[in-house]
């Protein structure tokens, strides 16, 4: 292969003039970053904010200050992309450092600064006119909306909105409760600055940890009151989607929109244990497909996804459609032996087919499953994929984020079924995540003790799915099998235990006022 000689490489380099201009702009950017870093490390947040204002919002053109000369160079260079990149990264430098130092209030003050931006006038120097025009462009961009999104969530836990909100009782979009999905594209986008990606990843982790902890606390406290309540029917506690469901302890709200069905869903998922647990089935599948050619692997993967699912008519349609689509995936490798890399890429493609095939709208398979009440069915398929290829999780979150963006344009009343899917997805993956352990225990009643449950560790065929768990007012959908399973689930209590590592990893816990939570976490109820 031809390799360039030193002379060839020298001749292909940028001309001195163009390279000099690029280098000047890069140096100007670094001067601004360094000045801001020095300010956040050695000055007060108010002084750092004032420095930011003097650089970007109202540059004074002081020739004695390095940062003033730097922003003038960018203005003279007439390069809008460089200015916008510098502005955006500078914002995240401030936000990252204020978040670490717990100076959350200055995040909102940063946004307030942009409200003072004036439109350019002809009396200004040309470089200042350009900067004001670029600022107007930034304020109209998605990048600015992302910045506002961050600042709204960089608040002390005491002022964060309750997770138990009525989706139609707030001025914010109904998708705001699933905001952590909006963070995924930000930390997955390699074009974003490292500061923005780090902040997005950290904030996403914090929000997931908060959900995990809130769910565990809700389970513990709701069952305390649940044991004292009289149940007259296994249909008690029907799902009232996205309504308020507070237990007797005011500080422990249901972080989902599932209402009391949250407990039944957790029981249904945790009940799937023993030999036929999803983790064990995934391990068996991995052993069985080792050494298979790729074509056979794709067929086996479909069988693995539908294993033990109950809705035969929907599953038959799914199998035919998925096979047709999967036949078109990596056809050049069909005679090769499956590898870990190929398996990972294939699982990513299956997630794409299941969620958002075109990267914008719901896929055909997504509509097929959810239109037949198969939210839990789809979620279990996605869980199975992550169990055989853990790296799929980020790609899954990215695809779900596309759908959240898509459905954001519709009224909340039209999207309750989609919000239900998101809640089931969150609960299911939280239960299978590390940090909180959920187990089922007998509730200790005489009736329950006298009647053993033979199906608890039975083959999956004996473990009914309860459809999508929504026992609607239309009782025509509630079958005898649903009633039997609901009665079985109600005989159990959930034991939830949060590990100390989970508590320590959640920054907001250290900021909470002591309300007695700590001693409740490791206890069973």
Compact summary:
By secondary structure, this protein is mainly alpha-helical. It is built from 24 helices and 2 strands. The protein folds into 2 domains: 13-155, no CATH class; 203-431, no CATH class.
Descriptive labels:
single chain; 525 residues; mainly alpha; 2 domains; two-stranded antiparallel ribbon; 24 helices; 2 strands; 59% helix; disordered C terminus
Task: Break the fold down into its secondary structure elements and pairings.
Elements: H1 6-11, H2 16-42, H3 45-57, H4 66-77, H5 80-100, H6 105-114, H7 126-139, H8 142-153, H9 180-188, H10 194-226, H11 261-271, H12 278-289, H13 294-306, H14 312-326, H15 340-355, H16 364-371, H17 375-388, H18 392-407, H19 416-431, E1 436-442, H20 446-450, H21 480-490, E2 492-498, H22 500-505, H23 507-511, H24 517-520
Antiparallel strand pairs: 1-2
Helix pairs in contact: 2-3, 2-4, 2-5, 3-5, 3-6, 4-7, 5-8, 5-10, 6-8, 9-10, 9-18, 11-19, 12-13, 12-17, 13-14, 15-17, 15-18, 17-19
Explain this structure:
With 525 residues, the chain is an all-alpha fold. It folds into 2 domains: 13-155, no CATH class; 203-431, no CATH class. It is built from 24 helices and 2 strands. The chain has helices at 6-11, 16-42, 45-57, 66-77, 80-100, 105-114, 126-139, 142-153, 180-188, 194-226, 261-271, 278-289, 294-306, 312-326, 340-355, 364-371, 375-388, 392-407, 416-431, 446-450, 480-490, 500-505, 507-511, 517-520; strands at 436-442, 492-498. It has a two-stranded antiparallel ribbon with strand order 1-2. Helix 2 (16-42) packs parallel to helix 5 (80-100) and helix 12 (278-289) crosses helix 17 (375-388). The model is unreliable at 1-14, 157-169, 227-250, 445-478 and 507-525 (pLDDT under 50).
């Amino acid at each position: 292969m031809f390799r360039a000689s030193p002379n060839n490489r020298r001749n292909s380099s940028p001309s001195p003039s163009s390279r000099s201009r690029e280098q000047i702009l890069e140096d100007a950017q670094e001067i601004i970053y360094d000045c801001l870093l020095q300010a956040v490390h050695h000055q007060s947040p108010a002084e750092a904010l004032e420095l930011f204002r003097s650089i970007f919002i109202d540059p004074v053109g002081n020739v004695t200050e390095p940062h003033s000369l730097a922003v003038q160079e960018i203005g003279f260079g007439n390069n809008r992309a460089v200015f916008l990149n510098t502005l955006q990264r500078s914002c995240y430098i401030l936000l990252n450092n204020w978040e670490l130092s717990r100076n959350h209030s200055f995040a909102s003050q940063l946004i307030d600064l942009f409200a003072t931006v004036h439109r350019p006038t002809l009396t200004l120097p040309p470089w200042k006119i350009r900067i004001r025009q670029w600022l107007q462009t930034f304020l109209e961009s998605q990048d600015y909306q992302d910045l506002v999104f961050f600042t709204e969530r960089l608040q002390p836990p005491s002022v964060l909105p309750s997770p138990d909100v009525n989706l139609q009782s707030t001025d914010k979009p109904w998708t705001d409760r699933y905001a952590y999905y909006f963070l995924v594209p930000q930390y997955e986008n390699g074009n974003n600055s490292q500061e923005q990606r780090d902040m997005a990843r950290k904030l996403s982790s914090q929000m997931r940890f908060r959900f995990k902890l809130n769910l565990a606390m809700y389970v513990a406290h709701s069952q305390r009151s649940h044991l004292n309540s009289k149940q007259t029917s296994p249909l008690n506690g029907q799902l009232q989607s996205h309504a308020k469901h507070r237990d007797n302890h005011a500080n422990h709200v249901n972080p989902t929109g599932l209402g009391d069905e949250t407990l039944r869903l957790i029981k249904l998922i945790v009940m799937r244990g023993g030999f036929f647990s999803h983790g064990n089935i995934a391990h068996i599948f991995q052993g069985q497909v080792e050494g298979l050619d790729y074509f056979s692997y794709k067929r086996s993967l479909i069988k693995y996804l539908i294993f033990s699912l109950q809705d035969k008519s929907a599953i038959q349609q799914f199998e035919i459609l998925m096979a047709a689509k999967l036949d078109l995936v990596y056809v050049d490798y069909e005679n090769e032996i499956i590898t870990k890399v190929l398996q990972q890429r294939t699982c990513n493609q299956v997630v794409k087919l299941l969620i958002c095939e075109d990267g914008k709208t719901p896929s055909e398979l997504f509509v097929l499953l959810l239109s037949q009440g198969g939210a839990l069915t789809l979620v279990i398929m996605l869980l199975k994929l992550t169990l055989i290829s853990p790296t799929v999780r980020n790609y899954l979150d990215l695809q779900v984020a596309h759908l959240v963006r898509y459905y954001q344009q519709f009224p909340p009343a039209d999207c309750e079924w989609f919000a239900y899917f998101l809640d089931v997805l969150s609960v299911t993956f939280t239960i299978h995540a590390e940090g909180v352990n959920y187990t089922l225990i007998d509730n200790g009643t005489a009736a329950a003790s006298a009647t053993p449950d033979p199906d608890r560790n039975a083959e999956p065929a004996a473990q009914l799915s309860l459809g999508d768990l929504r026992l609607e007012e239309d009782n025509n959908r509630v079958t005898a099998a649903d009633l039997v399973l609901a009665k079985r689930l109600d005989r159990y209590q959930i034991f939830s235990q949060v590990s100390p590592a989970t508590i320590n990893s959640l920054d907001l816990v250290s900021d909470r006022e002591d309300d007695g939570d700590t001693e409740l976490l490791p206890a069973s109820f």
